[in-house]
Amino acid sequence: MHLASLAAAAVAAAVAALVQPVEAATGFTAGGFNFYASIPNAGNALVCMSGPLAASNWVAIGFPADPNNPGMIGAEIVLAYPNTDSVANPVNLLHGAGTSSSGIQTFTRIPSTATDKEVVLSTENSSYRSGNIVACFIRPFNATSALVTGATFSPVNLTQTATSYIWATGPMTNGAPAKHTSNDVVTGASLFQAASTTTGSGTSSATTSSKSAATRPAAAGSSALVAGVLAAFAAAVVACVA
Questions:
Q1: Are strands 33-41 and 44-52 parallel, antiparallel or unpaired?
Q2: Could you tell me where the beta strands, DSSP code E, fall in the chain?
Q3: Which of 3, 83, 142, 225 is most buried, with most CB under 10 Å away?
């Protein structure tokens, strides 16, 4: 009986570990894209953008210079687009800022002569498959203008607390990003906390999303199946050694 009790307890503990809820997705959702981040090591963030994207289009996230007055002008922008010519490097990144010329807002890339130590593509975490892009890059939390020499803007510090972001998407023309076709400002959102979402166009506030373990039926279903098998096994053990 003692052996039966030990076996049952061990199996019960395994079941409890396996059926813990899957953690909710992080970041925020806007315009059909997911924007999220993790912390791979001290001092750095792994920032990702994912979602359906035509091979001839781009998607971008921006870090406003003034979170209390977010806008494209002066914002640091990281833009990604598919690289269909390379399997090993399926995503291209452009790093720059939102600028204005004669009243027209545009994306200005860091000059090719600049030394950019600010944003580095994470190739192993990036992909473009079946019309869906995952573009991830390593970005320091605490940034200084010294990290991007020759640039016309100063990078901003990242934060794990709620703040403002901008995003946009549009077409690539002759190898360069053309004017966005959709864009928005996201306020009260975090790349690192529980998922939030925005709707509509123009400035909008992020709201708590319903994303949770329940939205991942495959994972939840697998846990339930394993739990059932282990529970039956525990009962069999008890019956055999009683």
A1: antiparallel
A2: 28-30, 33-41, 44-52, 57-63, 76-82, 91-101, 104-109, 115-116, 120-121, 127-129, 132-140, 148-149, 163-173, 176-177, 182-189, 196-197, 202-205, 207-208
A3: 83
